[in-house]
Amino acid sequence: MSEVEETPAEQTTEETTEASTADAAEEEDSQPTENENLRKIFTGGLNRETTDEEMKIYFGKFGKIEDCVILKDRNDNKSKGFGFVTYKTIAETDACIKQKKTEEGHVLGDKKIEVKRAIPK
Q: Are 33 and 90 in contact (CB under 8 A)?
């Protein structure tokens, strides 16, 4: 007896539906549903030498980061000393904000920095 392999055209509807459901679930996980305003923090008092990557590594300790940016001057491209971090969930944002209430607070680049929920203008 010889075994017959299924070709993609012969896949059952059930197999196709399972694959579609898995793709949809993966896509849903990658798109946060919580309000961005509640997931974004302001980081002030940054060392002017701190890079986006250093900030991302530091704040990554508190949760998954969706976006991380240090604002820079248009003319000379130097740091303005502040930035924003957006987490995937509000719980991760809250964990980061809670850290500032401890004795150590937040220290990045040998400098104590201010961290608070960002307030949209």
A: no
Distance from C-alpha of 23 to C-alpha of 21, rounded to nearest angstrom: 5
Residue 45 tokens read as 């008092």
Tokens describing residue 20 = 């579609």
Q: Please give the pLDDT value at position 13.
A: 46
Task: Look at residue 4 in the predicted model and tell me its pLDDT.
Answer: 53
pLDDT above 60 for 16: no
Token pair 């993609």 in the structure block, residue:
8
Q: Which of 99, 29, 3 is nearest to 59 (CA)?
A: 99
Note the pLDDT tens digit of each residue in 26-50. Answer: 444 555 567 888 999 999 999 999 9
Whether residue 21 is predicted with pLDDT greater than 50 in this model: the reply is no
- Please name the residues in contact with 52: beta carbons below 8 A apart, sequence gap of 6 or more: 68, 69, 70, 83
Any idea what DSSP says for residue 32? -
What is the distance between the alpha carbons of residues 51 and 108, in angstroms, rounded to a whole number? 10
Q: What does the alpha-carbon distance between residue 81 and residue 49 come to, in Å, rounded to a whole number?
A: 9
Which pair of structure tokens corresponds to residue 54? 């250093």
